[in-house]
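Exercise 7.
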Amino acid sequence: MAFHQDVVSGEQYRYALTNFRIAHEKVEEQRKQLEEQERQIGLLHARIALLEGSANEQQGARAKQGGSSVDDFSIKNAASQLERLINRWAADVVRSPPTSLDEIYAAAISDITGSDEPLPPGATPMQVQNILRHVVSEIISAEVINCLIVTNSSEANTQLTRIHEHLFSRNPMVACVWRRQTFSAAVESCDANMAHNIFSDQMPTLIKILGPFVKPAFGILESAYSFSRMLHGANSSSGGSSDAFYRSFVPEIGGPLVPRQIELIRRCLKSERGEVDRVGTTVFPGLVKVTRGTAAPGGENEDNVQNIVRRAQVICECALHATPTVPAPMSLEH
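Solution. The predicted structure, written as tokens, is:
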């Protein structure tokens, strides 16, 4: 039985082989182009994530530990740890004071008020401990949280803080990107020299008499700086459609007790009797989240909206100056 066999000439075979090779090379070239395109797209996505501050969000593990994302619970937890650190330091000073309690109390009041008027003697350990907490709270609020610490220069940091406020007033999202980009190149820690300069500027009288307790106070500023970086490195709210940043506040000594802003950590007998009392000391600053208002019909944003995340921890005057009552001795008469 005869079979029909297809036969092509050598020329046709070579032509088909050449065309196949050319087609294969083109397919391979297109494959490499697609790979390069995918690589460029990946780099672009990474760049966008960096600018939006969400690069670390995809890593998951750091999202709730002070990475690029932070929630109110994390803030309150970190603030509580810092508050305990301040209280422990102040208690150590009172437990082994480098000088008399009266002198420490007078120095703290002088640094807070800027007045050198003499004070009556008889400062109690509780008064000294809590006035020290107030001094440190004011320093952390003004010099660490409310000032963007990016460089070792306080003047440069002040200027950068003003730039951020100006950007935020004009375009919150630009301020959001600028702030996180700036913090990506910030100093890694608040070193001893920087801490010394801050304390020298803010509590020049106390730093001269605290002796061995000055260095431990530097550690508080280091922890406060880490807390500040967590706050200012937070992602923008509403999925990146708006921006928010955090500021702190310290109610002044002798100021009114505003329930919305403060939390009394000791019982206030005057308030319970319906009498007016005032702030004795602030033992830890309050924290507010600042956002821009919604756009008005004219296209302009409304004023900043401030939501209190954590109220300032306060001791009232009557609790601060209360004298412990000693029970009268029992009569031995029958």
